[in-house]
Amino acid sequence: MKGTHLGEFEEIVLLTIAALINEAYSVAICDELSKHTGRNAKLGVVHAVLNRLEEKNFVKSKLGEATNARGGKRKRYYTVTAVGKAALVKSKEMRDELWSRIPERTLKRI
Model-level pTM? Predict the structure, then answer.
């Protein structure tokens, strides 16, 4: 298994999966990323990140039902695991701690 460090884009993808709840499949994830971050998320890049997150046990996936609209293809849905949730919480706590250490007067100048 790869390291358990959560990169910035991995974190954003993981947060997006959590926000989408039961509708987190690759195209929906790309759409949400574009909508909320302004980044043009390429499907191939998102797939690579989803594979890494699954290798790290931050997400798990399952295949949905085949649909006529998709020519009989099945969507792969992703959910955040307990390990993934813990990684998100740790990341948020670390960021909050760093933000709290910045003096208010410094933030006013930025």
Answer: 0.85
Distance in angstroms (rounded) separating the CA atoms of residues 88 and 56: 13
CA distance 77 to 16: 13
Name 24's Cβ contacts closer than 8 Å, sequence gap at least 6: 16, 17, 77, 78, 79
What is 8-109's CATH number?
1.10.10.10
Integer Cα distance of 61 and 76 in angstroms: 6
Q: What ranges do the domains of the chain cover?
A: 8-109
- pLDDT tens digits, 54-67: 999 999 999 988 77
